[in-house]
Amino acid sequence: MKIAVTGKGGVGKTTFSAVLARLFAAEGKKVLAVDVDPDANLGLALGFTADEVSAITPVSKMKELIAERTGSEGEGMGKFFKINPKVDDIPDTYAHEKNGIKFLIMGTVEVGGGGCVCPEHVVIKRLISHMVVQRDEVLIMDMEAGIEHLGRGTASFVDRFVVVIEPGARSVQTYHAVKKLALDLGVRKVSVVANKVRDAEDEDFVKKNIPAEDLLGCISYNDEILKADRKGVSPFDTSEKAKTEIMRIKERLESAD
Ligand SMILES: Nc1ncnc2c1ncn2[C@@H]1O[C@H](COP(=O)(O)OP(=O)(O)O)[C@@H](O)[C@H]1O
Ligand SMILES: [Mg+2]
Asked: How far does residue 125's CA lie from ligand 2's centre (Å)?
């Protein structure tokens, strides 16, 4: 299973990605969790401490590695570089492991005008493609908010976009936009997780606006999730309810594959 978790800012992409990753790991599956949000905070939600997270170098900042792999170092830097750098050893060498999950932070890639073909971008794009195509773990990518970046192609290799929504019209718009974009990118499957669902009215709204075949399930609005975030710990370790609800979504995901 190789999924990219998308949606508006603040809807719960990181929360969902982290608990899903922990659930897979808890049953002994190999899991690679990847933070592809420039505003990276998946690490804490997975259960890494703040110190551990700040000790992690994002792939985009591994200057020597990028220079070595793309041949972009030295004279004429940035002019000529390999567009097919070796990346297959990067997950095992550079991922940080905790709670049975391998974790990578991709970091920010500055996008120049007219589309970026900088060495960092080439390495990240190829690395994501490698992780999707050639590795056998469960891959969960916590994406940047919004959808513009999806067009840059870094997520276009995945099996499925999971769009996290809140019960509201703007989120539903995002779902439609992702669905359209997925079609253009050749990502065949788009599913929805509705988060922060407070009551039957919220649930009805979701069911009215999202086709049943696309809806994986709902996660209740839950103070334990908020508290975990305030403490900087994983909601997996503090909320049985969140775990149970996301377990149900995980089962739907597995049977949908
Ligand atoms: N089901 C929920 N109930 C209450 N608060 C939630 C829930 N899911 C997420 N949150 C809170 O909402 C905020 C944004 O969640 P986060 O997962 O970081 O969103 P995103 O990654 O989409 O920006 C966090 O403070 C988080 O704790
Ligand atoms: Mg996030």
From this structure: 20
